[in-house]
Amino acid sequence: MIRLPAVLKVIALFFAATAIGCATGQKEKYAFKEPRPSAYLEAAKRPAPLGPPPMEEKLTPYLPSPANKPKLLSLHFDGAPLGQVLQALAEDSSMGLLIAPDVDINIPIYVHLKHATQEEALRTVITEGADFFHSVEGLTIRVQRHDEAFFRLDYLKTPRLTTTKVGGDILGGASTGGGGSASSSIVGEFTVASTEAKEETNLWAQLGASLTAMKSSEGVVVVQPASGTVYISDRPSHMAKMRKIILEVRKMIMSQVLIEARILEVQLRDQTQIGIQWDAASRFSLFGREGAFKIVQNLGLGIGTGQGADVTSVGTGGAIGVSIFGVDALIDFLQTQGEVKVLSNPYLLVMNGQSAVITIGSQFPFGDVAGVSISDEGRVTFDSSIKRALLGLQLGITPHITEEGEVLLHVLPSITNLQGETIVEIPTTGGEVQQIRNPIIDLRQMGTMIRAREGQSVVLAGLIRRERNLEEEGIPYLSRIPIIGALFKNRSETQSVSELVVIITPRIGTPGTRGTF
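Above: the chain sequence. Below: its structure as tokens.
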């Protein structure tokens, strides 16, 4: 057995102890201890730490800067010259003063003001006290004798001549086959023509005359219809009046009226042969409700008024007023009186104060003789022409917007129908006769002035037409045998009665407003 030296044994024991100590220390260094559940509960019970104190916001009312606050002036002058007053105002306001040479600075000024702004003081002293014009340009007060203004009116230069006749010639222009002309006894005309009108129908001439009458002896008025401009210059007191009338004219010509017209023909039943029974309208029920269409006053073929409209009738027929809801009820009521036919439903956009005309129908040509002359040799000559009669519907309307926002309408509806023809015999050379056929025209028309509120309807009615129809039926050939032919044919006569009803609804529109179209 091999024995180790004692020194080696001691060294071996030292290294063994060192290795055991390192292993024990490493195990204690990286040891992980799991916390108990009670530790979480204790941490939740502890109050949260206090944070920084909240910031306090102090609200103060807004106060304008003293530099923006206008300076108030108090004036007290009894007969002081205008020049001295202006100089005092300029010095007190730290401003310059420029006075035109034609301004009289010796005019006495009588003014008492307290706590007035600079503009109020200048207007009171210069404009109202001395009747001069002033303006402030930068830091300079300018005083002039006259004010001036420039206006633009968008209005056509062409004057319009409106001729309205209740009882005129409805026959159109003629294409002459010979010479001469003739007049007709058939009536009913509404014409709108662009022509050289009289001064009272020319807007530009009328405006120029009004401004000339309102200006002073120093004033200047220049009206240019070609460019649609107006220039005025005068003392401030006269300028205010002229400016007001120009603005009113511009407001008038910029306004428009949209007119909805319903032109109906009611074929009356046997029980309503004398016309539509308007008294029954107040008892008419719409959707189970009576009084849906109400007439306040009914004068038959005279003048009537109703809710929402004031009516003044000057022609044949009558007029009543209804509300917007009552229009549908009115049509339903008319269907109880007979068969309703819509002749036309035009929409017309008309400028305020201007006339519009709508024509729907056809032209019927016919020959007309102007005169007959006989020469010494016995030759007969006559002047003939070809004319055309309008058959159909013609509606003329002129609207005018009142200051109260109502619409004053001049309405002229006219309907013509061909009833038949008549033969005119004209003697010619040699005792011969030439025949010319001329039409027999049935005419229905009315002319009225109506005042209605915007969006509310007015009804024109009362024009009745009676038509007789003769019908003959028979056996061919046998019905033509003399004497006994009457036994093989049958003649019947029928009569139909119709009434014209016109419903008009105006609506006002002005550029830049709610009613713009």
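Residues 23 and 29 are 10 Å apart (CA to CA).
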